[in-house]
Design goal:
four-stranded antiparallel sheet; single chain; mainly beta; about 50% strand; globular
Length: about 130
């Protein structure tokens, strides 16, 4: 059974930084492409970023490009989301997700491509 667990959320002031971590267990971590999504109150869940199984390929939503960076450590079964220059509109519940069965450098960008999801970690950007 695959488990995905996020950590690192919290309250931060506008312009601040926060790093989220996500651990996946139950299968070989490098078999998963990993993605981050977020959902604000009253809104649909949206794509934030994805990283391929190898870590060589990443893709970002336009709204976070240049501010957020994703990386992974396959030896530690962990993926990271470094969030800089945070804005109030970044406030949301952030979900980590794992996608299996894709080639080594494929980057899934759609919700339906991810079959394993964490419970989410809250990020609040407010002064």
């Amino acid at each position: 059974q695959v488990h995905v667990v996020e950590s690192g959320g919290g309250l931060v002031q506008p312009g601040g930084s926060l790093m989220l971590s996500c651990a996946a267990s139950g299968r070989t971590f490098s078999s998963f492409a990993m993605g981050w999504f977020r959902q604000a109150p009253g809104k649909e869940r949206e794509f934030v970023t994805t990283i391929s199984r190898s870590g060589a390929t990443t893709y970002y939503a336009d709204s976070v490009k240049g501010r957020f960076t994703t990386s992974r450590d396959n030896a530690k079964n962990t993926v990271f989301l470094q969030m800089n220059s945070l804005r109030p509109e970044d406030t949301a519940l952030y979900y980590c997700a794992a996608a299996a069965g894709y080639s080594f450098d494929y980057i899934p960008r759609e919700l339906f491509e991810y079959e394993y999801w964490g419970q989410g970690t809250q990020v609040t950007v407010s002064s």
